[in-house]
Amino acid sequence: MANYTAADIKALRESTGAGMLDVKKALDEADGDQAKATEILRVKGLKGVTKREGRTTSNGLVNAQAGDGVGTLVEVLCETDFVAKGEKFIALAGQVLAQAVASGAADADALLKSSLEDGTTVQELLDGANATIGEKIEVKRVARVEAPVVVSYLHKTSPDLPAQIGVLVGAEGGDEQVARDVAMHIAAFSPSVLTRDEVDAETVENERRVAEATAKEEGKPEAALPKIVEGRVNGFFKENVLLEQAFAKDAKKTVEKVLAEAGTKVTSFARFRVGG
C-alpha cells in the first residue's frame, strides 16, 4: 500500500487542481512522494492536452485591473466550476492578467503569444496548467481601455465562485464615482454599444422589418405602422445602447442624462460575462 494519507491527497489536489482519481493514481505510482506525484500528473497531463482541445469551456472567471488611464480585462475559461473556484486556477488567472497588463495586449491572440519573464509564452503557461489540472484552459477574450479615467468592476453571480462578470469604463471629466456607478449599471444591464451610431445599419433595418411584420400580424392599422415601427426600433436602442438605457440607480433618468449632470463623458467600455 502506498505511503500517503488523506491529507496528502487533499494537498496534492489543491496544489495541482487535478481530479481525485488522478491524484490517487499518481501518489500510488510515486509511493506517496508529493514532488514525484506532481511530476507524474504533469507528464500525463501534457500527453492529454491535444485530446482536450475539443472540450467545452463554459466555466471560469473574469479579472480586471485599472489605473493611470489604462484598464485591462481578461476572461479565462475552464471546464468545471470545481476548477474555476480552485486556488490554482485563480492564481493562474492572476498571472494571465498581470501579463496582459505588462504586455499591453489588446486581444487574446497577442496575449497568448507574449512571453513572461522566464521566456515562457502565455500559451505554454496554459498548456502546463492544462496538464496538471486535467482540464482544457483557455484565454477567451482580452479588452484594453484607455482614457483619462478608467475604472473596473467585477461582479460575482454566485458567492462560491470567482467573478463571472467584468466591466471596464473609460471616461473623462466629472466624478470618478459616477464612472463606477455606470460600470455597475453595465454589469447589470449588459448594453452592447455606447451610442446608437455604433449599431450597424443592417441590424437596424432588420429590427424595422421585424417590427413592421409584428405590427401587421397584430392587426395594427396601416396608417399607424410608421409610428409603431419607429417606437419599437427606439425600444431596441433603449435596450442595447448604454447612453439611452434607464439608469440603474434612477430609472427616471437615462445614463446619458446622469453623465451630463455630473459633467462626465464615457468614451468607451468593455463587458465580459463568463461564457457569454
TrEMBL record:
It holds the Pfam family EF_TS. Gene3D superfamilies: 1.10.286.20, DNA helicase RuvA subunit, C-terminal domain, Elongation factor Ts, dimerisation domain. Keywords: Cytoplasm, Elongation factor, Protein biosynthesis. It comes from the Bacteria. InterPro entries: EF-Ts_dimer_sf, Transl_elong_EFTs/EF1B, Transl_elong_EFTs/EF1B_dimer, Transl_elong_Ts_CS, UBA-like_sf. Coiled coil: none annotated. Residues 71-275 form the Translation elongation factor EFTs/EF1B dimerisation domain. One of its GO terms (molecular function) is translation elongation factor activity. CDD domains: UBA_EF-Ts. Its main location: cytoplasm. PANTHER family: ELONGATION FACTOR TS, ELONGATION FACTOR TS, MITOCHONDRIAL. NCBIfam families: tsf (TIGR00116). Associates with the EF-Tu.GDP complex and induces the exchange of GDP to GTP. It remains bound to the aminoacyl-tRNA.EF-Tu.GTP complex up to the GTP hydrolysis stage on the ribosome. This is Elongation factor Ts. It comes from Pedococcus dokdonensis. The gene is tsf.
